[in-house]
Design goal:
The chain is α+β, with helices and mostly antiparallel strands and 337 residues long. It is built from eight helices and 16 strands. It folds into two domains: 26-152, 2-Layer Sandwich (D-amino Acid Aminotransferase, Chain A, domain 1); 158-320, D-amino Acid Aminotransferase, subunit A, domain 2 (D-amino Acid Aminotransferase, Chain A, domain 2), CATH 3.20.10. The chain has helices at residues 7-12, 55-59, 82-96, 104-116, 188-200, 244-255, 268-271, 304-317, and strands at residues 35-38, 41-44, 62-71, 77-80, 124-132, 144-152, 163-167, 205-209, 215-218, 222-227, 230-233, 260-263, 276-281, 285-292, 295-296, 328-330. The strands form two sheets. Strands 7, 8, 9, 10, 11, 12, 13, 14 and 15 form a nine-stranded mixed sheet that branches. A seven-stranded antiparallel sheet has the order 2-1-6-5-3-4-16. Bound molecules: 4'-deoxy-4'-aminopyridoxal-5'-phosphate (PMP).
Length: 337
């Protein structure tokens, strides 16, 4: 009897096809507002449009910020780290060479009006975007349209935030090609490739490697892991967005949770032996990573250090940590923080 198997037999081996993951996750859950801020006015959702011939529509020439509003225990709501988000928006505009005459006060007015005029009293995700509405080729610098959309959304407990991820076969775009450190709409086509591949193969999310093969970030969030009690995250030179949440957590980890932190290059194989891991971002807050390429992270459940960071983050965003009150901008004038 022969020990070899024919090509026909190989072809007939049945392999289970992993089920595609649902395309929405608990942390994606957001509702549409009735009114949207466009260039100084609140307009009905259906009227908030840009032209098909704009370079924003044709080539994806836009920059944006995603930030969160949190309902505090006092009945007041707060925009979290608005100043840092506006600083990054200015950096995105500068690097993209988009002409924008709006001041930071105008940006803040757009954010607050989009929450207030939709009467959103609880949590919300707010997207402030600058679209190049000029017509022409991709080098068109303006005019622009300033748009702000506030989506109400429920809070999601840490135990419902876990995800199973894979290492994407798509690499993160290198800074010598396009700058991923800024928040430009077009950058998210790279995220799309990774996420589509992940979902097709039965994972929730993807993590990208840099073109040099080091760990970069997720499609819509930064990455951190815990090894031997140390919180480790790739550096800002690893083709990542310069994330507000990442720097918030690095500060909280060192000051409030008493952890050692390291910003350093991370190898792919470290993902398979990490004790804990999570994605972080304004919209995602902290989302524990439960497995990578089917290797369980730790014991496959939310780890203790991730929980401590989550608690520290909650104390800050809900206004309970008074030493960080400077990170919160009140939404309503009728009550005090
Ligand atoms: N990386 C990418 C690609 C993102 O889209 C986001 C979400 N803005 C993040 C990281 C996290 O950034 P931030 O904490 O500033 O929201």
């Amino acid at each position: 009897m022969s020990n070899t198997i024919s090509a026909d037999e190989v072809g007939s081996i049945e392999r289970p096809v992993p089920k595609p993951r649902p395309h929405t996750r608990p942390t994606d859950s957001i509702a549409n507002p009735e009114w949207i801020y466009v260039d100084g006015s609140m307009v009905a959702r259906a009227a908030a449009t840009i032209h098909v011939s704009s370079v924003a529509a044709r080539y994806g020439t836009s920059v944006f910020e995603g930030m969160c509003v949190y309902g505090g225990e006092s009945g007041q709501s707060f925009v979290f780290r608005a100043k840092e988000h506006l600083t990054r928006l200015r950096q995105s505009l500068r690097i993209m060479e988009i002409d924008c005459d709006y001041s930071d006060a105008d940006f803040m007015d757009a954010i607050l009006r989009s929450v207030r005029e939709n009467q959103i009293r609880g949590d919300a995700h707010v997207r402030l975007s600058v679209f190049v509405i000029g017509e022409g080729l991709s080098e068109c610098r303006g005019p622009i349209s300033l748009v702000c959309v506030a989506h109400p959304r429920p809070a999601t407990p840490i135990d419902q935030r876990g995800s199973h991820i894979n290492v994407s076969t798509w690499r993160r775009v290198d800074n010598s090609i396009m700058p991923m450190r800024i928040k430009a709409g077009a950058n998210y086509q790279n995220s799309r490739f990774g996420t589509m591949e992940a979902r097709r193969n039965g994972y929730d999310e993807a993590i990208f490697l840099t073109t040099a093969g080091k760990v970069s970030e997720g499609g819509h969030s930064c990455f951190a892991m815990v090894r031997n009690g140390v919180l480790i995250t790739p550096p800002v030179t690893a083709s990542i967005l310069e994330s507000v949440t990442r720097s918030t957590l690095l500060e909280l980890a060192a000051d409030d949770v008493d952890l050692r932190v390291q910003e350093r290059e991370v190898d792919r194989s470290e993902l398979y032996i990490a004790d804990e891991a999570f994605f972080c971002g304004s919209r995602k807050e902290i989302c524990p990573v439960l497995s990578v390429d089917r290797f369980p992270v730790g014991d496959g459940r939310v780890g203790p250090i991730t929980r401590r960071l989550w608690d520290a983050y909650q104390a800050v965003i809900r206004g309970r940590n008074k030493t960080r009150a400077g990170w919160l901008t009140p939404v309503w004038q009728d009550s005090k923080p």
